[in-house]
Amino acid sequence: MKLGSFKNGAPEYIVKGNNKMLLGDFKGAILEFTKAIIIDPQFPHSYTNRGAAKLEIHDYEGVIEDCLQAVKLHFRAEVEAEKKAAQNGLKKSVHSNPIYAKLYSMIGTAKLLMGNREEALVDLNSARLLGNQDAYDIMKIYSR
């Protein structure tokens, strides 16, 4: 994650949130990531990190909401990068960003833990297709 892409003040909260995650203070981490989101609501990694913390405290609906917001923001950034490249006469194709695999895996895991097995397997399969081996392993266990 490039800290230089944040607006003023947000890197401090991301670092604090990550440190709290490492210490197991997931509620504290959520608070720090929320502060980063307030400062820069267009930075998708803050939502991704907050979703990971919410997964740890079993706020599955919150996980899904944050991860879907992160997907939307990542996609928007990729489309903007493609537009800028085209304006400069360059070809830049929108690639599969590995973060999508992580996000869909978190969404699928949350849905699975909420008891929504069918939707969970669809999201986990998306994560698998994007290269997340862990999602494949989870699918094998729960698709029996």
Fill in the keyword field for this structure.
mainly alpha, 7 helices
Q: SSE layout and pairings?
A:
Blueprint: H1 10-22, H2 26-39, H3 44-56, H4 60-87, H5 98-114, H6 117-129, H7 133-142
Helix pairs in contact: 1-2, 1-3, 2-3, 3-4, 4-5, 5-6, 6-7
Global morphology? flat
> Over the alpha carbons, how many angstroms does the gyration radius reach?
16 Å
Percent range for β-strand residues? under 5%
* Tally of strands: 0
Could you state the order of secondary-structure elements as H and E? Answer: HHHHHHH
Task: Count every helix, treating DSSP H or I runs of 4 or more residues as helices.
Answer: 7
N-to-C span: 37 Å
The assigned structural class equals mainly alpha
Question: Please, could you describe this protein's structure?
Answer:
- The protein is mostly helical and 144 residues long.
- It has seven helices and no strands.
- The protein has helices spanning 10-22, 26-39, 44-56, 60-87, 98-114, 117-129, 133-142.
- Helix 2 (26-39) runs antiparallel to helix 3 (44-56), helix 5 runs antiparallel to helix 6 (117-129) and helix 6 (117-129) packs antiparallel against helix 7 (133-142).
- The radius of gyration is 16 Å and the shape is flat.
- The termini are far apart.
- The mean pLDDT is 89.
Quick rundown:
The protein is mainly α and 144 residues long. It has helices spanning 10-22, 26-39, 44-56, 60-87, 98-114, 117-129, 133-142.
